[in-house]
Amino acid sequence: MAEGDEDLPRDAKIVKSLLKSMGVEEYEPRVIHQFLEVWYRYVVDVLTDAQVYSEHAGKTTIDCDDIKLAVQSKVNSSFSQPPAREVLLELAKNRNKIPLPKSISAPGIPLPPEQDTLISPNYQLSLPKKQSAREAEEMEEDEESTELSVSQEQVTDLPQQTPQRVSFPIAKRTK
């Protein structure tokens, strides 16, 4: 082993030799610790599942079949196969049936229609109507009154405040 390997635990040495056998020569030293963390977490998960399967079967100890079942369960739930080539080809064929948007023919870079771009105005400002001084005084008087019940006629007499919606186009920048 290389220098500095004497103080590494046995599992870290195994990870280091696995990386070397796969052709990985340069890596951060923390990579070994990250692999060990994943490795330990996976083993603990598999052994915990195997223990549950063993207890469910009424056995006092974990045997090889429990571990095989736990590993198979972990593989089935953790890893998924990519779709078949035929399925991908069919999806691509359906997607390619949709034509691309027409481009604007103008000097410069051709762009799609303005409604299909991200540079068109896409926001609105909500501006409340300003209250007159008289209405503001009436509102303050209503708040200060100690009446617990308000008749329906008083509520309908108050002016409705509907916000105005305003949108602004983005200014075009000249170079």
UniProtKB/TrEMBL annotation:
It is found in: Nucleus. One of its GO terms (cellular component) is transcription factor TFIID complex. Keywords: Nucleus, Transcription, Transcription regulation. Residues 99-175 are annotated as: Disordered. The keyword Transcription regulation applies. GO terms for biological process: RNA polymerase II preinitiation complex assembly. It comes from the Eukaryota. Residues 148-165 have a biased composition (Polar residues). The keyword Ligase does not apply. CDD domains: HFD_TAF9. Residues 137-146 have a biased composition (Acidic residues). GO terms for molecular function: protein heterodimerization activity; RNA polymerase II general transcription initiation factor activity; transcription coactivator activity. Belongs to the TAF9 family. PANTHER family: TAF9 RNA POLYMERASE II, TATA BOX-BINDING PROTEIN (TBP)-ASSOCIATED FACTOR, TATA-BOX BINDING PROTEIN ASSOCIATED FACTOR 9. This is Transcription initiation factor TFIID subunit 9. It comes from Citrus clementina (Clementine).
